[in-house]
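Contributing: when you submit paired examples, paste them exactly as shown. First protein:
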Amino acid sequence: MADRHRMPSTSTPSTLAAAHQLLHDLFGDQPSLLSIPFADWVTTSKPFLAFAQTYQSKIRKKIRTCQTLEETYNLYCELRTAYLLLQEPKFALAYESAGKEGRSADFAVTFRTHTTFHVEVTRLRASQQEQQFHAGAGSLDLSTQAEQIDFLRRYESRRLADAVCDKIEQLSPATPNLLWIWSESRLLHEFDVEQGMLGLKRSIEQREAPLFSRYGYEKPADFIRYYQRLSAMLIQSLSDQGMQPSFVWWQNKDIRHPFPSKVTNLLHSCIQSDASQAFPREN
């Protein structure tokens, strides 16, 4: 049942007691698909348990404002990101700390007390077009498959550009910033992010009217000012449970605050050691 809270046998009695109380405070007796992976996180990671206790009110409010399955899935991705970041002992995590310009990234992360970077999390669902293609690809000849894949790649490129432009305005101008994208899309994980971002930047610089109207920029400099805040982008698969975690890492060459190599390596290690439960979607 979705509301059961599974407690791993490796947890200490004190951790189990604290986790059980936290789960009750967050979820009560209401069924929640999020409670299953959340129970694993708080009982297998003391840093995540402490994080969830610190931000209990914020997390409870987010849980209760999720009205749909997709909203709950989005929150799962956000909290799974926190869980992964907290697997690195050198990282300290703040959740939605207020920024000087209003909107702020989801997480402010401090490495060894002296290097701060920000992480913004989003989820890109597999598009209906891609799902339909994979469902019927076996009945298509090779030429038709190639045409449809080409169309889907261009479509996913636009969706990725939309995600970037939707998020970059809330990134910090004073620190490195990471856009962490979770997605079930197979094609997105085969996508050439470098070429996609160069294409987006070129289209903005050429003042293509549809892009300007869609993203609200008045001139190319407006976009470049925010684009330079995006230090790196990480696209992580939601479709590889039980296998080696799959992700794409892209580093922006047109930035003021690059990620230190030590931080990049630690982030990669966090992802590669991920053994999180999948979000228990209902059919």
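Second protein:
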Amino acid sequence: MAGETSADPARGDLSAVSFTPTGLPLGPLTPPTPEEARRTAAEGWIWGFALVENYRTMYPQAVDDADPRHVGGFGTFRHYPQPFGPANTDVVTPNNDTPYSWAWLDLRTEPWVVEVPATDRYYVLALHDLDTSYVGFVGSRTTGPGAGRYLVTGPTQAVAHPAAPEGFDGVLHADTQLVGILGRTYLAGPEDVPQLAAVQEQYRLRPLSAHLGTEPPPPAAEPVWPLWREEARYGIEFFGFLDFLLGFFPELPADADLRGRLAELGIGSGDFEPAALPAAVREAVLLGIADARAQLDRASAGAADSAGLFGTRAQLGTDYLRRAVGVREGLYGLPTEEAWYGGWPQDSEGHRPPDAHQRDYLLRFPPGRLPPARFFWSATLYGLPDRLLVANAIGRYSIGDRTPGLVHDADGGLTLWVSHRQPVDPARAANWLPAPDGPFALVIRVYGPDPAVTDGSWSLPPLTPAP
């Protein structure tokens, strides 16, 4: 294990030598200076934010079987045919346009098989690595409406399965040994739940050996999963979780420099111990975390849409700060070619975000300027700072092109009313999106966005205080 030492007499005194997982010596470790430690901690916190936030979701869903959010462990789907509401807290900024199907795969011993049915209903199964980079997509946009069978391989299995085997429609190669699947399936309305559920039940997972009818390989050892603690997100314990997760994430060339510097702090060894750091270095790590949090706050404040925040590893590149913004603003958001997300960092009068003293807003789409979508669009409102749905008197959490009874303006445009109090005017009440009695965030989603959305020739109208 990297970072372990040995004093085996047959090998000589190796107490100052670090070893890679293959047992090859790295050479003596030189402790970083406090200045170096601060910089590494800041960069490492930004880079590792996606992994730790992903674990924050994975732990209750796949590991903690006493948690109500548990999906059943690894290798099984849990479907939610009902639209999300305030009680659903698995992820921030959830949507209720496309109810979720959750699953997690452990690829340490063998690949897994994903099967989907033929359906004309919009859906996407998005598979992501531990750092939330997308492995690939199965769904309406990418693989079409037909039934399909896909192989998912881990980092040690890609050589054996470079292309789709016979009987498979594709292969998805993961860079981490643990992979998440977040499925989204279109829901036309409450009356559509049984039909939606029938489609979800046809999303199936099996180990490759079960599909082939062969003897399964010996199971991998059960990890000692660290108990998730909310307070760990912003303290030095953050790096304890990152240290554990790196055991499932073989080093990639693009990350080699940073991971080497993290290793100098003992992060990546599998047994990171903050108390073992010199006091000055430990204090520098805490300062680095504070630096990183401030940097993320600044970057998040200017994020008006989802361009560049979500995607595959090739799409995201090494801009880890933008990836962290995406994770913070909407964990597991889809890339813009699948779904575009927009919002308002400030309203038309410069308040950021819409604040409690300014409770009533209107959002007017002029004639011909509704969000251009191949599939559909919606506007969803969240309370701040937790970015979750907020209970309201009519149980409406989003509004969009599928909302029944919308009243268009006389000129053909559409005005949405965002307020805590229900409008008295019937036409306004029909177009009402209830807001909490406090700060909120409003998010537009465009599924299958037209090129006008992604190239910027279409843009969101201002969020304007109501007269």
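If you have annotations for the second protein, write them as plain sentences, like these:
The chain has three domains: 9-53+227-301, 62-212, 336-465.
The first helix runs from residue 34 to 63.
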